[in-house]
């Protein structure tokens, strides 16, 4: 099988895909120089990827201010203009956000991101103050690099 990988450099397209994606995989460094990967829902805002962690054991072992990656992968419809008249078997679009994992500490940011989660995943625009309580700690990948690829296999 052959594959063709195209690097996507259109930042507006990449950010649109990040904003509309429903979930991704986070890879974080742990205290004992190992790493953990887990799937999560997220919000992309201000060039950062925000996500909640409610697993106390994982929270204790994550090494904050260390390298982290966040990846989304989506299966795209195959279009003939991209594959140059060859019969495609698959088409994958991926985005990798590389940066530093940090804990959100500013109250305004925490409140704004909680509201963004509500809007993205429930469709509601606003919940009363008492209902915006969230479970877990709000962490984020402070992005340093965004890489996007469009891969077609044939």
CATH class: Mainly Beta
**Percent of residues in β-strands:** 35-45%
Can you give the mean pLDDT? Answer: 88
Radius of gyration: 18 Å
Number of strands: 8
Number of distinct helices: 4
Q: How many structural domains can be distinguished in the coordinates?
A: 1
Mind telling me the CATH superfamily name? Electron Transport, Fmn-binding Protein, Chain A
What's the assembly state of these chains? single chain
- The share of residues in helices is 10-25%
CATH structural fold name: Pnp Oxidase, Chain A
Shape: globular
Low-confidence stretches: none
CATH hierarchy: architecture = Roll
Strand and helix order: EHEEEEHEHEHE
Describe the structure.
By secondary structure, the protein is of the alpha+beta class. The protein has a single domain, classed as Roll (Pnp Oxidase, Chain A). The protein is 23% helix and 44% strand. It has helices at 11-20, 56-61, 80-83, 107-122, and strands at 3-8, 24-29, 35-40, 43-45, 48-53, 66-75, 90-103, 137-153. Strands 1, 2, 3, 4, 5, 6, 7 and 8 form an eight-stranded antiparallel beta sheet that branches. The longest helix is centred in the last third of the chain and has 16 residues, at 107-122. The chain is globular, with a radius of gyration of 18 Å. The model has no long low-confidence stretch (mean pLDDT 88).
Notable features of this structure?
single chain, alpha+beta, Pnp Oxidase, Chain A, eight-stranded antiparallel beta sheet, 8 strands
